[in-house]
Amino acid sequence: MKDDSAPPATDCQRLDKWLWAARFYKTRGLAVEAINGGKVHVDGQRVKPARALRQGSEVRIRKGALEFTVIVLGLAKQRRPASEAMGLYRETEESTRRRQALAEERRLAPASQARGSGRPSKRDRRRLGRVFGR
């Protein structure tokens, strides 16, 4: 006899697949790398790529200097356009504020590459040669 009280199988989705469908990562492989690298947490816990994700879960994603904290609103069977993918989650107010503050800080910071950094010119190489006795 079939149990009708069991929840339908579509009320959860693999975390790596959801991150890919929500367009946080370009491929599922990149999503798996990020999850295994500890850059993705669900409800405050480090998880594995096959973790079942449900609506209402809180997902924290760190990509470089940026950190997103989102609430899962929906699940997707396929990867859809970015406009539709944004409907799968809602970013928390605190996360939005932090990202905007970081962007403003970066905008106001001086250029990250100091003058003279990079490959030395031919003149600089000659001077260095003299200093090191070459």
Averaging pLDDT over every residue, what do you get? 88
Dominant shape: elongated
Structural class: alpha+beta
Specify the CATH homologous superfamily of the domain at 7-95: RNA-binding S4 domain
Number of continuous helical runs: 5
Strand content: 15-25%
In whole angstroms, the N-to-C terminal distance is: 87 Å
CATH architecture verdict of the domain at 7-95: Roll
Strand order of the largest sheet: 3-2-5-6-7
Low-confidence spans:
1-9
Q: Give the proportion of residues in helices.
A: 25-40%
The CATH topology of the domain at 7-95 comes to Structural Genomics Hypothetical 15.5 Kd Protein In mrcA-pckA Intergenic Region, Chain A
Order of helices and strands: EHHEEEEEHEHH
CATH class of the domain at 7-95: Alpha Beta
For the secondary structure, the number of strands is 7
What Rg, in angstroms, do the CA atoms define? 23 Å
Largest sheet: 5 strands, antiparallel
Secondary-structure blueprint:
Blueprint: E1 13-14, H1 15-21, H2 28-36, E2 40-42, E3 45-46, E4 52-53, E5 58-63, E6 66-72, H3 82-85, E7 89-91, H4 93-108, H5 122-131
Antiparallel strand pairs: 1-4, 2-3, 2-5, 5-6, 6-7
Mind explaining what this structure looks like?
The chain has 134 residues and is of the alpha+beta class. Helix content is 34%, strand content 19%. The chain contains 5 helices and 7 strands, in the order E-H-H-E-E-E-E-E-H-E-H-H. The protein has helices at 15-21, 28-36, 82-85, 93-108, 122-131; strands spanning 13-14, 40-42, 45-46, 52-53, 58-63, 66-72, 89-91. The protein has a 5-stranded antiparallel β-sheet with strand order 3-2-5-6-7. Strands 1-4 form a two-stranded antiparallel sheet. A hairpin with a 2-residue loop joins strand 5 (58-63) and strand 6. Helix 1 crosses helix 2.
